[in-house]
Structure prediction request, 543 residues.
Amino acid sequence: MSISRRELIQLGGLGGLGIIGAGLVTVPISTVSAKSASQLRAGDMPKPYAAAFARPPVLHPSSVSTGVDGAKVNHYRISMRQAVAQILPRQTTGILGYNGIFPGPTIELEQGTRAVVHMRNHMPKNHPTFGHLLATSTHLHGSASLPQFDGYASDVTLPGFYKDYYYPNTQAARSLWYHDHGVHFTAQNVYSGLAALYIMHDATERELLPQGAFDVPLIISDAMFAANGSLAYDDRDHSGLWGDVILVNGRPWPVMKVQPRVYRFRVLNASISRSYRPTLSTGDPMYVVATDGGLMPRSQAVKYWRHGMAERYEVLIDFSKYKPGQRIQLRNLSNANNRDYDNTNKIMAFDVVAPPSETEMKLDPKWNFIPSTLADSHVMGLTKDDAEEKRYFRVQRDDGVEPWTINGVTWEDVIASNFKLASADPKLGSVEIWEIENKSGGWFHPVHIHLIDFQILSRNGKPPAAWERGPKDVVYIGENEKVKVIMKFGPHMGRYMVHCHNLPHEDHSMMFQFRVGLGEMDEDVNDPILAAPCQFDTETGDD
Prediction:
């Protein structure tokens, strides 16, 4: 059974799938101090380095088929549902999770293996704490998906419905992630747990970088808690939420045991508003080898890096210089306009242990080194002379009041135009330079451009930072910064979003769309709302 956009509006009372009331019911919390944000009693507050590190489980395909062109297709089944997680030492916390866990299960596959994800909304009609309608839209962040499978914010799936998402996986190896993108409530839904990794490998990356046990996902987020252990929510009048508990893979300040060798860490900032500046307690360098869109041309040695929301950085750490029994902390230097508390300067710790055997270490040198040359990519070879068009965008909030906008445009403006309004109309295959400016000294904005990878050309007229000299899909626009990026538009035609990944900013309502290769009135066979609507779920049981 398919469902039309009109029927969705009638079922959900969404007022045009966009102008949902902003009447969020928040958990009351005390005035934020420099010490804490949570209302937990002292004995219930988690302590740094008391929890063991854990990896999210890998989701195995429910079946495998062959496409008409002979390509392998993995089929996955996921149910979004309400569940309980053991985040705190003595209390449980209600979450929303993919397959009922936070973070959700990792999807891991090879370049060229397609995926079909059967995404079922088995959540209650309304959020159990915040009260809003749990209409979701799943975005595979970093994928060049067709518009109808890209997680368009107003293409929502209501409780009791499902949608099949098709992912081509033809891009170079990279760390992607899937998360909710439901219109106007992305922040609360992601904060409640709807986030997970999606890892794509290829032959080049497998040859150069650590694999298996030495290829480690770090999904970093922050949270604040009510006295009963539930997630509290205070986004400070939609400016941002900064929790006092730092989570890695859903555990507070965990400790990971590592051997004295090179490890690869896939670091995702899944916080809805907090940025980080990770550094080692020893002061030793780390080596950035990949960014959002995959391998950099060359590895970059850094003492720290600035990590905005939704960015992914793949980093090598060489633990061979440390002795068994030594503890190394991954600390957080933070950035301007975060709100920091007693322990938000800590992320996690590594305890060095002896290898299984010295003989095994000597016989297994593979990946146990820091490569200098990595891989070229088309986007990193673009120059300003390739650009056919230049555009300017300003991220702003006029006079300090809502809404948050980009060039004065909001998502409500897009909805009011019946989803026709586009702030850019690049041709398919064209190369453009976009200049994005933040004239405010009071806010930073990680800006995500869907569909494409881009290269950062400059920041305030200077070269980009060492850690961002690779293919990107999110760019940190810091206070009083002007950043130029260059990109090629494709491989698909259609409408895609651009937005701030401070998710309360996105929801209120810092998002616009661009249109690739189509005129405003052209027929759109890949309409992001109408081409592949959700369907009524007649199956019983969860996945």
